[in-house]
Amino acid sequence: MAFDIDMIKKVYAQIAERVDKAREITGKPLTLSEKILYSHLWDGNPNKAFQRGKDYVDFAPDRIACQDATAQMALLQFMQAGKKNVAVPTTVHCDHLIQAKQGAAPDLLRANETSNEVFDFLESVSNKYGIGFWRPGAGIIHQVVIENYAFPGGMMIGTDSHTVNAGGLGMIAIGVGGADAVDVMAGMPWELKFPKLIGVKLTGELNGWTASKDVILKVAGILTVKGGTGAIVEYFGPGAKNLSCTGKGTICNMGAEIGATTSTFGYDDAMERFLRATDREDIADEANKIREYLTGDDEVYADPEKYFDQVIEIDLTTLRPHLNGPFTPDLATPVGELGVKAKNHDWPIKVDWGLIGSCTNSSYEDLTRAASIAQQAIDKKLKPKSDFGINPGSEQIRFTAERDGLLSVFEKLGATIFTNACGPCIGQWDRSDRKGDEKNTIVHSFNRNFSKRADGNPNTHAFVGSPEMVAAIAISGRLDFDPMHDTLLNEDGQEIKLDEPRGLELPPKGFEVDDNGYLAPREDGSSVEVKVAKDSERLQLLEPFIPIKDSELQGVKLLIKAFGKCTTDHISMAGPWLRYRGHLDNIANNTLIGAVNAFNKKTNFVKNQFTGEYGGVPDVQREYKAKGIKTIVVGDHNYGEGSSREHAAMQPRFLGVAAVLVKSFARIHETNLKKQGMLGLTFANEEDYDLIQEDDTFNFLDIADFAENKPLTIEIVHNDGSKDIIKANHTYNDAQIKWYREGSALNLIKKQNA
Ligand code: MIC
Ligand code: SF4
After folding, report:
1. Where are the alpha helices (DSSP H) in 413-498?
2. Which residues make Cβ contacts (< 8 Å) with residue 24, sequence separation at least 6?
3. Is the previous residue joined to 46 through a cis bond, with omega within 30 degrees of 0?
4. Catalytic-role residue among 62, 68, 107, 160
5. pLDDT band per the 50, 70, 90 thresholds, residue 244
6. What mean pLDDT, rounded, does the chain reach?
7. Would you say the CB of residue 645 lies under 6 angstroms from ligand 1?
8. What is residue 581's predicted lDDT score, i.e. its pLDDT?
């Protein structure tokens, strides 16, 4: 039986009326995305047609999921909100804090020792406030969600950017910062700018070496890392119906890599099969009763140009397998063309590791397709030239895959089976073969491949591909290997060609699991004590942020002008720093250490304007803080791309940065800045970025009149006394300006609850 079936029935009971009403009000047929959005309005029945990309709308999500690395800060904030219980079903998943090293059993043991303080904290907070808790080793948040919680037509938010994975089961699932989740946990609406809609029509059928992953690798190549910003991507067409549910999940998952708010597919037979296979017959039966409400209207899919803001068409039959990278997930190259490209760019051809896993590609089907390649290596006497690492997506998948002999296939090839967790995908990887900064190449089935992400080495060239392609490349040991055309020499000196991968959508004998790792919360958690040791270096209770005074916005100093890509990994690195995710003061010591200083192209090396000396960003910033001087961070396009981690906003805020002024923002990060009571601004004129000098001082001339739809005016005073006056745009509405004025959104909640 499904979790929270009563809640799901309630959603389904009201969907028809609300969708019909929305159709009437908008006067047109509806996409699936609109159906879900309009049936989840905070105010209930729709009474107004919203303008896409313009109107801020209050929504009522059905559920929330948090993972261990973000839940700490989210729950530390929730604890301040003064509530007895979470207002909507919520779960916490321990998956980010487990380092991959020797293999599942010893790695999990070590994680439980090194992070027990954090796991205990999360378990007790969950118990206290009615939150479902998934223990370390239970699986990766998004796999566990799609197997247990996602449901067609539902809306959820999650404190992780890949929450969007649940679109594979027909949800609108959106990644948010912890402060957004706290709103919903506290029983308040969740606000989002009504998204634009991108339609992707899929025709044909996948075949040969091409996998679901290649759909999104291709889309990423077309739309780039910011092409989906502010939009929901809705997939439809005959090709969509030919994809498995978890395959759809893969596609939706990596929608985060194009900046999309989320991605989704209409309810279909593949989803029904998946629901039934994962012990949720009850949801399937209910969903079948309202099938037409759980997908877009026929008229929309027949004439998509009329109803979507942008339409892309992809023919699955002719789609080629891709490998995307290095250093960015949108650099798409069809397999077979990579050799020339790698040579031109001097990317190492030799592949050291093939890693299969992550929330993107760790389903049962993924493992079977990759195992079908691995099995051939055994049968045809091919010895893999690269090391192999596997992270199954959940204990249910691992248990079933072990039962069905899939894991032993990889083990025979010398693969290490790591814990059911994020592992190398988030830099939780004690890589045994290389320690220094040597140039090298790895391939993986993950979603992100930003510099330093997997192993901390800026010279690791990581390429993203489907699990089966990763398996083939790892066996060949070469980035330029094209399994569709090339042969390999086996141990007997024979030329071998790999056959096309074969997979199973679902386990023929059904899923099985002994202990899935779930811990239900107490009925009444009021007596549960949440412990945070005073001297802990991992956890720290939060102090409210003090509002930034208008007077402090005169004489603001430049902290750093970031050059080029500045993702949340650059602003608040993961990997070894994950250990401080619950301790704001400690994690603040990594603030912007990965950002490239535009004036000297170095990382973590900025000028202190008072002493003229150079130092690390956090150190210089702490010196400004000690003097009571506010600072500004300047950045390029898509600033804050990547993670939902609100640390990337809270740390600068904590250290005394008042404003972030960039060419453009990634959605979640911009909201995170607003929530934490900072100024997130964009250049009205992009070229003004070039005006900013290393010794600049900024005066916010009209901050006293900070208002909706009114750009701010900033005076920039250069070292030689000359001045420039520029305009900065912002997207704050009246309510968000209140967050800023109160010091943070949480301060406002506390005030309202007082
Ligand atoms: C990621 O994939 O970058 C993460 C780690 O899952 C993040 C969340 C985090 O920083 O904890 C995400 O995608 O939001
Ligand atoms: Fe974990 Fe990687 Fe998925 Fe993020 S992208 S949730 S780190 S597996």
Report:
1. 467-476
2. none
3. no
4. 160
5. very high
6. 97
7. yes
8. 98
pTM of the model: 0.96
How many A from CA of 223 to the centre of ligand 1? 21
d(CA 129, CA 76): 12
Q: How far apart are CA 297 and CA 244, in angstroms?
A: 21
What whole-number distance in Å separates Cα of residue 271 and Cα of residue 341? Answer: 38
Name the residue among 279, 258, 253, 438 with its Cα closest to residue 357.
253
Q: Is residue 96 annotated as part of the catalytic site, yes or no?
A: yes
Residue 754 has pLDDT above 80, yes or no: no
- Our answer on whether the CB atom of 415 is closer than 6 Å to any ligand 1 atom is no
Q: Which of 202, 93, 210 is nearest to 146 (CA)?
A: 93
Active site residue 645: yes
| pLDDT value at residue 436 | 86
DSSP state of 189: -
Question: From the CB of residue 619, how many other CB atoms can be counted at a distance below 10 Å?
Answer: 14
* Gap between the Cα atoms of 628 and 656, Å rounded: 8
Determine if ligand 2 sits within 6 Å of the CB of residue 359.
Answer: yes
Rounded to whole angstroms, the Cα distance separating 112 from 137 reads 10
Strands 712-717, 723-729: parallel, antiparallel or unpaired by DSSP?
Answer: antiparallel
Check residue 39 and give its pLDDT.
Answer: 98
State the CB neighbour count (10 A cutoff) for residue 515: 10
Strands 310-315 and 196-203: parallel
- Amino acid sitting at position 348: P
What are the residues whose beta carbons fall under 8 Å from the beta carbon of 292, sequence distance 6 or more?
Answer: none
List the Cα angle 289/294/298 in 5-degree steps. 105
* Active-site residue (options: 115, 358, 643, 744): 643
Has 273 been annotated as catalytic?
no
For 481-532, what is each residue's pLDDT tens digit? 999 999 999 999 999 999 999 999 999 999 999 999 999 999 999 999 998 9
- What is the residue type of 686? E
Say how many Å lie between the CA of residue 62 and the centre of ligand 1. 22
Q: 8-29: per-residue pLDDT in tens?
A: 999 999 999 999 999 999 999 9
- What is the per-residue pLDDT for 282? 98
- Separation in Å, CA 729 to CA 227, 285, 298, 649, 674: 20, 49, 40, 19, 14
pLDDT in tens, 220-240: 999 999 999 999 999 999 999
Q: What is the mean pLDDT of residues 732-750?
A: 96
With a 6 Å cutoff on the Cβ, whether 643 touches ligand 1 is: yes
Would you state the structure tokens that stand for residue 164, as one six-digit string? 């969007």
Is 621's C-beta closer than 6 angstroms to any atom of ligand 2? no
What is the average pLDDT across 60-64? 98
Q: What is the pLDDT of residue 701?
A: 98
pLDDT at 432: 83
Tell me how far apart the alpha carbons of residues 113 and 107 are, in angstroms, rounded to a whole number.
Answer: 10
Ligand 2 center from residue 426 Cα (angstroms): 6
If 0-12 CB within 10 Å is exposed, 13-18 middle and 19+ buried, where does residue 286 land?
Answer: buried
Length of the chain: 754
CB 226 within 8 A of CB 196: no
pLDDT of residue 752: 84
Residues 260/451/561/590 CA torsion (nearest 10 deg): 100
The values of phi and psi at residue 573, to 5°, are -60, 150
Pocket probe mutation, ligand 2, options 250, 418, 426, 668, max atoms within 8 Å of Cβ: 426
The answer to whether residue 435 scores a pLDDT higher than 80 is: no
Annotated active-site residue 120? The verdict is: no
**Residue 635 and residue 659 in contact, taking contact as beta carbons nearer than 8 Å:** no
Report the pLDDT value the prediction gives residue 112, as an integer from 0 to 100: 97
Position 55: which residue type?
D
Active site residue 142: no
Contact 671, 180 (CB under 8 A): yes
Any ligand 2 atom below 6 A from CB of 358: yes
CA angle 618, 623, 627 (to 5 degrees): 140
Model confidence at 82, pLDDT cuts 50, 70, 90, reads confident
